[in-house]
Amino acid sequence: MNQWIYPLAVFLGGACFGVLSTFVKLAYGEGFVLAEVSGSQFIAGTLLIWLLLLFTKKKKISVKRFLFIALSGIPMGLTGIFYYQSLQTLEASLAIIFLFQFVWIGTLLEYLIDHKKPTNQKLIAIFILLIGSILAAGVLTNGFSNLSLSGVAWGLLSACSFSAFAYISGTVGRELPPIQRSAIFALGGLLITMVIFPPVFLFDLQTVTAIAPYGLFLGLFGVMLPPLLFAIGMPHVGAGLGTILTSSELPVALFMSLVFLGENLQLVQWIGVCIIIVGIIFGNFPVSKRKERSITETSEKLNAS
């Protein structure tokens, strides 16, 4: 297989997440509510990925292990619920900015759980990311007039849950084939969604028929395809390049919101988006030990002064 297939798979996996917010907004415009959108997505997506699992290699595990991995998929379901909740009061182009804070929240999570101290390069990247986020959110030009505080809170919660799932998915169930592990995670996401939003809409045939196209689309691009594409590409491109490639989610989400929703970003917001991408690339760009030592020494001198 050509080597360019692997980074392309990761890039497309990120892009899949980027299309979700636009179609959630369109579903809201059709009169559907959060419970119907989230429920239909996870029902459809879980069915699709389990159907795919029938044709792939599987490994036998105990019931206890199966339940543990399924429970580890809860943050996956919560991410969709929190993110889609934020889309009720925020434009899609803004909600994605707050979701993208998972980049620095994930670093904080590693420090709190694994006591993994971030490098100076990573800290600088986080600072760049935060500056870009302030510009991209339009705070400097519009103040907080276009921001819903509840929407911001839900968006940040989605970033926290996504960071938790990213951490868990890198540590839990690694002995399983990627598709099998993703299918069990999806089942956990489905279960927590059903607990929070009992699928009463399934008893209304008219609603099921109307929401089905959205559910299939969101399930395909939000639950099934990303794990498959990441399973193909991530082992070959590595975490650093993988993080850069998955940032395709941001420009795709913005482009979709412009074309299909008619949302508009000011020049300073586009500059902020570019700064965010630069921060992600900088934070994951390989730095030699000599350069890292130089950065550390410079930082110590500044602190001393």
UniProtKB/TrEMBL annotation:
What positions does the domain EamA occupy? Answer: 8-136, 150-282
Q: Which residues form a coiled coil?
A: none
User: Which InterPro entries does the UniProt entry name for this protein?
Assistant: Diverse_Substrate_Transporter, EamA_dom, EmrE-like
Tell me which Pfam families the record gives.
Answer: EamA
Q: Where in the cell is it found?
A: Cell membrane
- Membrane protein topology class: Multi-pass membrane protein
Q: Which residues cross the membrane?
A: 39-55, 67-86, 92-112, 124-145, 151-170, 182-202, 214-232, 239-261, 267-287
Q: Does the keyword Glycoprotein apply?
A: no
Record's GO cellular component terms:
plasma membrane
Task: Write the record's keywords in alphabetical order, separated by commas.
Answer: Cell membrane, Membrane, Transmembrane, Transmembrane helix
PANTHER family registered for this protein in UniProt: EAMA DOMAIN-CONTAINING PROTEIN, OS03G0707200 PROTEIN-RELATED
Q: Please give the family membership noted in the entry.
A: Belongs to the EamA transporter family.
* Name this polypeptide is given: EamA family transporter
Organism of origin: Cytobacillus horneckiae
